[in-house]
Amino acid sequence: MRKLLPLLLLGLLCACSLSTPSAPTDLPPPPPSPPTLTASPAGIPPPATSLPVNKHQRLSPQALHYLGAFRLPGAEDRPQTFAYGGNALTFNPQGDPGGVADGFPGSLFISGHDRMPYGELPDGGQIAEVSIPAPSRSRSLADLPQASFVQGFHDVLSGHFVRLDEIPRLGLLYLDVPQTGPQIHVAYGQHFETDPPSATHGWFSPNLDAPHVQGEWFLANTSFYNSNDYLLEIPADWAAKFTKGSVIGAGRFRDGGWSGMGPALFAYRPWDERGQPPPNGATLPAMALLRYDNSLEGEDFSRALAGYQHPDEWNGGAWVQTAAGQQALLFVGSKSNGEKYWYGYLNPQGAQAVCVDRNIQDFPTCRMADGSLCPPEDLSGCCDEVAGNCASLRGWWSNRFDAQILFYDTDDLARVATGEWQPWQPQPYAHLDIDETLFLNAPEGEQISVGWGEQRRYRIGAVAFDAQHARLYILELFADGAKPVVHVWQITE
Fold it and tell me: For position 10, what pLDDT does the model report?
């Protein structure tokens, strides 16, 4: 089992080779440092037109209170396992009504072991529903409570999105609206776009025995790399004002800047006035609420997330709205905050040392945090992949990663929706480091893929939000062997 992730990531390593026609030809410098908790970031100035007064109170990072974590059930026999899973997560307010007794009603739908290419595991990415036990703050995995199955693993998407199995990207969203009743909306992608392009969105019933999958659909005015991973619910009152009732937010971040140099979000609605889904293969209108330039659109990173670096990973999002009216759009992931970042390998000499892929000449393989190029001595490499003496798999690496939550002002997104701002102008008003809550104990056999210490990447998986009880659920990858652990935050007024 420990060898599965390296095999899964092999496509990622090959994906950035020089033979790829769409590989970036030059990578411009990033903008200034990321924002702090106490001040909005310097960077993109607002447009010259007058701006409306903010209508919503910003959610403070101090409103998030850590409750603890719990383990997931099941064994590790693929594909019906959470090991090498956690790509997608959503909250079901109607699930596990018995959970009221411990104060944690509702359930979670979570994806299991990912699909694998070349026919090795075509029935991966199965979906299960689990209960939510009262979390514990214990630092011992053995002492954490364990969820139980509400519905076991089902190959819900069998026969759908069949070409998307090379490092899959998967998003789920439980949504119950009057027009359609309860449905689980799905986004499906992979590391590289297919030829011809594949449809990426659909929905299915929460009854996993009879899912009645609808779709597959395309989203208009999006790229394959920025719309088919995380899904979130946009509050209906906000959507009625600004997105013509489109209450689903879809997005994706892909390292290297191919998705846009920061997280993305598009609003869409896959049903008509009668609640009927569009026909298979349909292209659905989508409104951009957040989209930074991708790495092929500019050379100065002026239209990027403040502090952006190519090894960043944003794996989930949630639109949080409290009863008192506080709001924020949250993105959660592993932020590269290194003094240097590079395309290549981990250097066994330590986190301060660079190890670029010396075979790549088409784009800068190493940059300083201020965007300048690394000195020539950093470009000598440290290993030979052909000889098999590299300390890690190839990819985007950094001196340091931090698990973070970004906070965006939803009024800024309203300015984008009304045309006052461009989709690249919103910036986070705060961020919150959450490393101290994580276990960060990936199995030794997986460190070649995920790194270790400050260079541990892929810290965070998907995110879900319980709006009724104001709770945030975040998956930590490779926390319980190859299985994720669920962390829980309470959001107070």
Answer: 39
